[in-house]
Design brief:
It is a single chain. This protein has 17 helices and two strands. By secondary structure, it is mainly alpha-helical. Helix content is 69%, strand content 1%. The chain has a two-stranded antiparallel ribbon with strand order 1-2. The radius of gyration is 24 Å and the shape is globular. Helix 1 packs antiparallel against helix 12, helix 4 runs antiparallel to helix 17 and helix 16 packs antiparallel against helix 17.
C-alpha cells in the first residue's frame, strides 16, 4: 500500500471505513461472545487484539478480523466441557497450528475442501446458532443444559411457561428494525441503531427484560493484563480436538472472507501470510482473555463498501473499538439480551447458505448426499466429525466422477504397404 502511494485522501477514507466497521462490530462482538457462553467483554477483547493483529500482519488488504458467529457452537461446547481456561488454551493452540499451516505453505490446499462440505457445515452452524438464541429471544428461564442441540431443544420446550412477552417484543423489534434499515437506509449502522433503540425502550418503559448489566454486571473499561492460561500436559491433550477444530474452521472462514474481498476489489490475497497472521492473532487473543479470532465476511464486506484503501482501516477499527470500550463501557450495561439475540437471529439467517443449499440439492445426487451428511452431522454430532465425513464423501464422489469421465477404447494399428505401423 505504501509503495503504491498513500496520502491524506487515503487516510481519510480508511478512518471513515474503520469507524463504520467499528460501529457494526461493537454490538456484534458482544452478542457473539454471549452466544459462545462467555462474558461480552471477551468479544471486545477479541475484536480489539485479534482485529488489530489480523489487519496489521495479514495477507489481505481489506480483511477485518474478530469474533465470528461460526465459532459460537464450538466455543460454547469447549467452555461447557473444559471451562474458560480450557477454551483459552485451545485458542492459543489453534493459533500455533494456524501459524504452522501458513509457515509450511499449506494455505492453498484449504481451497480443495469440497464446496458441498463448506455449505453444509456453515448452514448447520447457522441452524445451531438460531436455536441457541431461543432463550434470550423469548425471555425464557432456561435450566443449565448440555450444549448439544437435542438437550437444548428439550430445555427450551420445558421453559416455555416462562415466556416473556416484553423480551420477545424487543427481540422481534430489533430484527424488524435491522431489516427495515437495511432495506431503506443501507448506509446507516442498522445493528447499532436497533440495539440502541431496544436499550432505550427497556430503560424508558421499565420493561422486565434482562440486560448485560443484570446478567454480567456490565463490562470493564480497560483491557486486561495479558497472561497465559494454566498449562498442563493433561489439559493440552484434553483440548487438542477443540484446538484442531478452531484452527480448521478459522482457516476456512478467514480464507473465504479474503476471497470475498478479492471478488469485491479485484485484488489477490496471500493465503499463507493470512494464516500466519490469523495464528498470531489467536495467540494474542488468548493472552488477553479473548475467544477465537478469524476473518469475518460481513465486516470485511462492510469495510470494502465503506471505501477502505488498505489495512489501515482494519487497524483503526480496532483502535475505535478500544476507545468505545474506554469511554462507553457503562452504557453497555443497559443493552437488553433480547436485542442481542435479535441481532444474532439476523446473523444466522444471513449466514445460512440458503440459495447454494437448494442449488446443490438439485444439481446432483452425489453433491446432495455430501451436503446433507455434513449438514446433519454438524447439527447433531459435531463440526470436526462433519468435516471429516464430508471430506471423505467428497473425495469418493470426485474419484467416481473421474472414473465416469475416463473411457478406455481399443486402438488398432494400421499397417502400410511397406509394413510400417502408423
Amino acid at each position: 500500500v505504501l509503495r503504491e502511494g498513500y496520502g491524506v485522501t487515503d487516510l481519510r477514507a480508511d478512518i471513515l471505513a474503520g469507524l463504520t466497521v467499528a460501529i457494526v462490530a461493537l454490538p456484534l462482538s458482544m452478542a457473539i461472545a454471549i452466544a459462545s457462553g462467555v462474558g461480552p467483554e471477551r468479544g471486545l477483547y477479541t475484536a480489539i487484539i485479534g482485529g488489530f493483529l489480523i489487519s496489521a500482519l495479514g495477507g489481505s488488504r481489506f480483511q477485518i478480523g474478530g469474533p465470528a458467529a461460526a465459532f459460537t457452537v464450538l466455543v460454547a461446547s469447549t467452555v461447557a466441557r473444559h471451562g474458560v481456561d480450557g477454551m483459552l488454551l485451545a485458542t492459543a493452540m489453534a493459533g500455533v497450528f494456524l501459524l504452522l499451516i501458513g509457515a509450511l505453505r499449506l494455505g492453498s490446499y484449504i481451497k480443495y475442501i469440497p464446496y458441498p462440505v463448506t455449505v453444509g457445515f456453515i448452514s448447520g452452524i447457522a441452524v445451531i446458532l438460531l436455536v441457541g438464541q431461543a432463550g434470550d429471544f423469548f425471555g425464557l428461564t432456561l435450566s443449565e443444559a448440555d450444549p448439544d442441540i437435542l438437550p437444548k431443544l428439550g430445555a427450551i420446550v420445558s421453559a416455555l411457561p416462562t415466556f416473556n412477552v416484553a423480551a420477545c417484543a424487543v427481540a422481534a423489534g430489533t430484527v424488524t428494525l435491522i431489516a427495515a434499515l437495511r432495506r431503506f437506509a443501507p448506509r446507516l449502522p442498522g445493528i447499532l441503531i436497533a440495539v440502541a433503540v431496544g436499550a432505550l425502550a427497556v430503560a424508558v418503559l421499565g420493561l422486565p427484560v434482562e440486560t448485560i448489566g443484570g446478567r454480567f454486571g456490565g463490562i470493564p473499561s480497560t483491557l486486561p493484563i495479558p497472561g497465559l492460561p494454566p498449562l498442563s500436559w493433561e489439559k493440552v491433550l484434553a483440548v487438542l480436538p477443540d484446538a484442531v477444530a478452531f484452527a480448521l474452521l478459522g482457516a476456512v472462514e478467514s480464507l473465504l472472507s479474503a476471497m470475498v474481498a478479492d471478488g469485491m476489489t479485484g485484488r489477490r490475497h496471500r493465503s499463507n501470510m493470512e494464516l500466519i497472521a490469523q495464528g498470531i492473532a489467536n495467540v494474542g487473543s488468548a493472552l488477553f482473555g479473548g475467544i477465537p479470532a478469524t476473518g469475518t465476511i460481513a465486516r470485511t464486506a462492510t469495510n470494502v463498501r465503506s471505501g477502505a484503501r488498505g489495512p489501515v482501516s482494519g487497524i483503526l477499527h480496532a483502535g475505535f473499538l478500544l476507545i468505545f470500550m474506554l469511554i462507553a463501557a457503562p452504557l453497555a450495561s443497559f443493552i437488553p439480551l433480547a436485542g442481542l439475540a435479535g441481532v444474532l437471529v439476523v446473523v444466522a439467517w444471513n449466514m445460512a447458505e440458503k440459495q447454494a443449499f437448494v442449488t446443490l440439492l438439485r444439481t446432483s445426487r452425489g453433491d446432495a448426499v455430501v451436503l446433507l451428511a455434513t449438514f446433519v452431522l454438524t447439527i447433531f454430532v459435531g463440526l470436526t466429525e462433519a468435516i471429516v465425513v464430508g471430506f471423505a464423501l467428497g473425495t469418493l464422489l470426485f474419484l467416481h466422477r473421474m472414473a465416469e469421465t475416463t473411457a478406455v477404447a481399443p486402438h488398432m494399428a494400421l499397417v502400410q504397404e511397406d509394413g510400417q505401423r502408423r
